[in-house]
Amino acid sequence: MTTEAGTQGCLALIACKHHLEEALAALQGFDSGSDLQDQLLNLHAQVERMHDQLRRQAAKRQATLQEDPHLMRTTA
């Protein structure tokens, strides 16, 4: 899997965050859901950190390619 923006990895993490946000919204009306909401918020933060890491890797790779365009590989 590559780490460039818009790749399957990034898209999967974005979808995961979206689903966690939907779950949080669904639990809004439940008084007994606070522990579960906290767990979902922690999971969301963890997924966001994973997404940030992929973005940093993609930015670093892009900077490297801009410094030395010969590193770009093409396949025939």
How would you characterize this protein structure?
The chain has 2 helices and no strands. With 76 residues, the chain is mainly α. The mean pLDDT is 85. 70% of the residues lie in helices and 0% in strands. α1 packs antiparallel against α2.
Written as H for each helix and E for each strand, in order along the chain, the element string is HH
Biggest beta sheet summary: none
In the predicted model, the low-confidence regions spanning at least 5 consecutive residues are none
Q: Say how many strands there are.
A: 0
Give the tally of structural domains: 1
Strand content: under 5%
Classification by helices and strands = mainly alpha
Helical residues, percent: 55-70%
Q: What is the CA-CA span between the terminal residues?
A: 19 Å
Mass-distribution shape: rod-shaped
Count of helical stretches: 2
- Report the radius of gyration as a whole number of Å: 18 Å
Mean pLDDT: 85
How would you summarize the topology of this molecule?
Layout: H1 8-26, H2 34-67
Helix pairs in contact: 1-2
Keywords:
0% strand; 76 residues; mainly alpha; rod-shaped
Briefly summarize what is shown.
The protein has helices at 8-26, 34-67. By secondary structure, the chain is mostly helical.
